[in-house]
Design brief:
The chain is α+β, with helices and mostly antiparallel strands and 416 residues long. The chain is built from seven helices and 15 strands. It has a five-stranded antiparallel β-sheet with strand order 11-3-4-5-12, sandwiched between helices.
Length: 416
């Protein structure tokens, strides 16, 4: 399979809108700690179309992580793609495939969804930023509820924020939040701090350099921190374990905590709901306060990823959603390219390090390859067969030559 990654990357970076019917905030009592996120939320993005505004409404959808995949390709630039001092002409592209699924359908998500591809750095930056804010608000509320329980008030004074603690299990959340707060004291380092490629302090005097960065694992269903031998984190060293090189400022060995990072690739679950729900407003509505409903707010993670991603929507029931705007033709052409590329990544045509998989073997685009047992047998059979055919041809040539000489001799005798 040959595919221009340059065209694909252009398609990934191309933003084309697919609007859905506008919705209002729903009056639910889901225990989400999103109050603080309202300050960072964006109103629904709008597209200009002949002096008219087209709303892009993602409020009824949730993000589902689908797959992570590295892809190695020819860089085409002087110096190759492996960084300074690395002899390679390959560069490594890092992709994440995700879906926008209708709410409460992340376990199935088999129709009326969009499939998207974006570079890993953009995905992790947006997802971790969102998850960090959710975690911060969650622990802040948990600690407040825990302190109120410890005060053991008589309950005579009315607490206007008592509703925040109604769905909060302080017996479990407080211990969880304390572990997060005291992570380093407990001998752990946050894995999310190593998602960007960075050099490790290996403490060797022989000039060996090692780098740590995010990589795909478990056939692309997980994201973990690996060890690489180049500054671009393209050449994975599977012989080394990242935790062997984790030390704190005092030189003590540390372990990695994936508590936050693993929330960005939850298997079979929604990573984030695009609608930011105002729990305070929901609480007021439950108490009979009929205030006018606010405009739906979309969380920043959904906005950023939708803007940055290459889109494959029509194939999954979104054909009525494409807007006939100025760049409509470009969207159609890019969508076909993106859909094909996503299909190739999901079909397992690349291995964990980004190399193309051919008939169960593994080959690199740079020319070096590792042959399987079957390939070696086929090559040996072909060589021996070629030698045998050459010998057989020589034998036939010799017999034909002798026969021709005998005929000529017979004819010469008859003439005499």
């Amino acid at each position: 399979m040959k595919l221009s990654l340059a065209l694909l990357c252009a398609a990934v970076g191309y933003s084309a809108a697919s609007p859905f019917a506008p919705k209002k905030s729903r009056n639910t009592r889901k225990a989400k700690m999103n109050a603080k996120l309202m300050s960072n939320a964006k109103t629904l993005r709008k597209l200009d179309q002949q002096d008219e505004e087209q709303e892009v409404d993602l409020s009824g959808y949730s993000i589902k992580f689908e797959k992570c995949q590295f892809v190695k390709s020819y860089n085409g630039e002087e110096g190759g793609g492996g960084g300074e001092g690395v002899d390679t002409i390959l560069t490594t592209q890092r992709f994440v495939i995700f879906r926008l699924c209708p709410d409460s359908s992340c376990s199935s998500c088999n129709y009326n969804y969009g499939e998207y591809i974006v570079d890993m750095e953009t995905y992790l930056e947006a997802a971790l930023g969102y998850k960090e804010e959710v975690q911060e608000q969650y622990c802040e509320t948990c600690n407040q509820c825990y302190e109120k329980e410890q005060e053991d008030d008589d309950g005579d004074e009315e607490d206007e924020e008592a509703w925040k603690c109604q769905n909060m299990d302080t017996s479990s959340c407080y211990a969880e939040c304390q572990n997060i707060e005291n992570m380093e004291e407990n001998g752990y380092m946050d894995a999310s701090e190593f998602i960007e490629c960075q050099e490790l302090d290996v403490g060797d005097d022989d000039g060996v350099q090692l780098f740590a960065g995010a990589m795909c694992a478990s056939s692309g269903t997980r994201i973990k921190i690996g060890i690489f031998s180049d500054e671009d984190c393209s050449i994975y060293d599977e012989s080394k374990d990242i935790e062997d090189y984790m030390k704190n400022g005092d030189g003590y060995n540390m372990k990695l905590s994936y508590h936050l990072l693993k929330q960005t690739y939850s298997e079979g679950e929604c990573v984030a709901n695009c609608l930011v729900e105002d729990e305070e407003q929901n609480n007021q509505n439950d108490e009979g306060d009929d205030e006018e409903e606010k405009e739906a707010e979309i969380n920043e993670m959904c906005e950023e990823l939708y803007e940055a991603a290459g889109k494959c929507e029509t194939n999954h029931g979104f054909e009525q959603g494409i807007v006939d705007y100025d760049n409509y033709d470009n969207q159609i052409r890019n969508e076909e390219l993106v859909c094909d590329f996503i299909s190739s990544l999901k079909a397992g045509q690349y291995d964990q390090t980004g190399e193309i998989v051919v008939s169960g073997g593994r080959t690199t685009l740079g020319g070096s390859s590792t042959a399987t047992g079957g390939q070696k047998f086929a090559l040996t059979f072909f060589i021996l067969g070629s030698v045998g055919l050459a010998g057989y041809s020589a034998m036939l040539h010799q017999q034909l030559t002798k026969g021709a000489k005998a005929d000529l001799a017979g004819q010469g005798g008859a003439l005499a």
